[in-house]
Amino acid sequence: MMKSRMTAISAGLLLAVGLLPQANAAMMHHQGMMMDETGMIMNANPDRLPRDCPQISETVELTIRAGREHAKKFPGKMFAYDQQEWNVKPCAKINITFINDDHVRHQMMIHGLPGYLYPEGMLHLELFGHGQLKASMILPSRKKTYLVHCELPQHQEKGMKAQLKVDGGDGDLPSIPGLTGPVRADVYPVNWSRQHIGMVLFSILIGSVVPFLFRKWIR
Amino acid sequence: MTPKKRYLLISLVAALAGAAWWLAPFGLEKGGALSPSTVYTRSAETGGTEKPCPDEHPEWRQAQTIDGVSIDEALSCDPDNPYDIAAAVKGTNNISMATLMQTRMAQDAVVKKDDLDGDGDPDVIEIKLEVVELNGASPDGEFLINTFDIAPGIKPGLWVFAPKSQGMALKNFFTMQANPILRAPSPTIRVEQGDTVKLTLENIHYLPHTIHLHGVDHPFMTAAGEDNDGMEEHAVFPGASHTYEMKPRHTGTMLYHCHVQTAQHMMMGLSGIFVVEENKPNNWVQTFNIGAGQVRHPSVKVKEGYSREFDLLYQALDKKLSAVIQNANDARLISKRMSREYNITESHENYFLLNGHSFPYTVRDGLIAAGENENIKLRIANAQRSPMALHIHGHKVTVTATDGVERPEAVRETRDVLDIAPAQRIDVDLKTVNDGLHSYGPGVWMFHDHASNGETTDGMEPGGNISLIGYQAYLDDKGMPKMHDEMLDVAFDKNYYAKKQPPWAQGDFTEMLGEPGRIEPNILKLAAFGLSCGGAFGLFVYLIFTGYRRRQ
């Protein structure tokens, strides 16, 4: 229910709030934001072209799932998206279907977008619980890597972090599970065994014998 | 070398070694007739101090009406956001969007509906709480995120139950500070006797938690036959949600807390007050009391007998336990260090909180502002690990209820030290009647745990759960106590709690009680020591070398 309603509204929201009276009754508006009891969309942009884009280059249908189960493949993490990286062409339009597989809140925020299209430079999708919503956005042409994350306390920190690359991106962000290393790494003990120690001692022995074996050449 | 010369050189080596011994420098030296002069340490220049009252929202102090909810005046410097109060009274489902947007609460944080007994107030109350980590770690660098200072510069890692919120958890884009409803303590929850209450825990945290309704009348199982007592074996795991049900028949001041690894999780901050108010007509109770303590929309029953009401929750933190969540990001490492390496039987409480803050921050929002000849209701809960001996200066107060059960008039004690066992609650009448017993007259009177650890912040006094009862005549227009500027100036300084700032180093006493300087090393003496050492060693080696050559 939410899905269809939000799709309908996101299409019309920024154009004219008054044109969709039935939608206004169902959802509440607050400056570029739509919210009902199941979730919220801030700054969706289905049709306004960035200044540097003469037209939409490609339309990408993106399903992004969020939840605990997607973190299973990342030891020590707790929450994650089902993918950690997406690549699109410059001036691509993305139709996002955001699905929350958990029974608590999750967000999907994309940061670093041009402020004249996306206030605060951000697209913000949030589901208040299990469910899904749809929203669209159009990316500028610049070769850039955008941060995608859930800003709930400790969600990005515990794995819910990803990146969206336009035209191959301009680098990688740190601490993306399975993709890039953290800036502040955890420290784990190394599993030393007797065999490892023996191997080191044996290597030292071999290393010290080598000069004698090749003493003719050394002279 | 002649033997004579040789003996002479050996004697010289001995003499030089002796001189080196005599000249040897040490880390500590005795002072002389004049001990080292006082070092200037007042840290104002280094940016340690902050304004005692930032005065961010003076308009929040006024009595006001929002969405039809009357909100009492709060005199303290940093009172609660009145929009939060309006939302907590009417329900997030019954307020205007404009009001909701002034809070950070989700639309379903507290849903109020169905006047089942037809007495003019809603009787079905659905409350949603999340577990939030404050001052947590980040893999992205050496910083803490969603910060909450309990005192100047003090950011221990802690967990709170928070009303379900929406949008950004940070205050804004330019800070790591948590937004204002993500704060300690966990909010006081208020419901009416006989309400059908559904309390949902939506666990957004990365460890399992529960809500145990301590002292609140609740069935052992939910209607669906699931756990309703919040016990450890029915933990709500990350990403999951569970609803506890109750229809409390008995009124009083109760508690709620997490019952997973209770020792650690309560020491991390997961506890709050739960109040069941008497059923009265048109009794819209303030379901969340977030932060400051003053109940600015008291229940009908409380309004009948009291001019003001305050919820006072005492908590304590162990800095070692709090550091566990700041020193790792891997949930398995955190879990291991918290559950198996941390040992509560070998632990200390280091930080003492009253409504989430330690002195001097308690003065900003936890101050009990009062007029003369008032009857003020205090609901006090001890969620520390250790017992408390709460002492109130200038007053003797009367305990009217213990653990949510009214005391008969005949056994009500009037005292100035209140012993409160861990997890115990007391209801207290504070009378500001200047009769030499209940009050010694207007003033700014301190109240604090007299088990003296509680007066300190990691050993630094004044700190801990010290707060003030401020009579209006003694408060300025920002709700700060008059005539305490010097003391507040010292305490609103993070260098003071970092133990870099001597107390009393002010005015005439700057020299006498300031930081003693260090003894400057004597450069000539150092050089002489070095030369003697070197000479002795050099000569010694020379002698051995020449002796060896001669034998050859």
Descriptive overview:
The complex is a heterodimer of chains A (219) and B (552). By secondary structure, chain A is α+β, with helices and mostly antiparallel strands. Chain A has a single domain (2-166), classed as Immunoglobulin-like, CATH 2.60.40.420. Chain A is built from four helices and twelve strands. The longest helix of chain A has 20 residues, at 194-213. Chain A is elongated, with a radius of gyration of 25 Å. Chain B is an alpha+beta fold and 552 residues long. Chain B folds into three domains: 3-25 and 521-551; 43-48 and 361-513, Immunoglobulin-like, CATH 2.60.40; 76-307, Cupredoxins -  blue copper proteins (Immunoglobulin-like, Sandwich), CATH 2.60.40.420. At the A-B interface, strand 1 of A face helix 3, strand 5 and helix 7 of B.
Topology:
The complex is a heterodimer of chains A (219) and B (552).
Chain A: H1 2-12, H2 21-26, E1 28-29, E2 33-35, E3 39-42, E4 59-67, E5 80-81, E6 85-88, E7 93-100, E8 106-111, E9 122-127, E10 131-138, E11 144-149, E12 161-166, H3 194-213, H4 215-218
Parallel strand pairs in A: 4-7, 6-12
Antiparallel strand pairs in A: 1-2, 2-3, 3-9, 4-5, 7-10, 8-9, 8-11, 11-12
Chain B: H1 3-23, E1 38-39, E2 64-66, E3 69-71, H2 82-90, H3 97-102, E4 110-113, E5 124-134, E6 158-163, E7 188-192, E8 196-202, E9 212-214, E10 241-246, E11 252-257, H4 262-267, E12 271-277, E13 288-289, H5 300-305, E14 308-317, H6 319-324, H7 331-341, E15 351-354, H8 361-365, E16 368-370, E17 375-382, E18 388-392, E19 397-402, E20 405-406, E21 414-415, E22 417-420, E23 425-431, E24 444-449, E25 467-471, H9 485-491, H10 494-497, H11 510-513, E26 515-516, H12 523-551
Parallel strand pairs in B: 5-8, 7-12, 14-17, 16-25
Antiparallel strand pairs in B: 1-26, 2-3, 4-5, 5-6, 7-13, 8-10, 9-11, 11-12, 14-15, 17-23, 18-22, 18-24, 19-20, 19-21, 19-23, 24-25
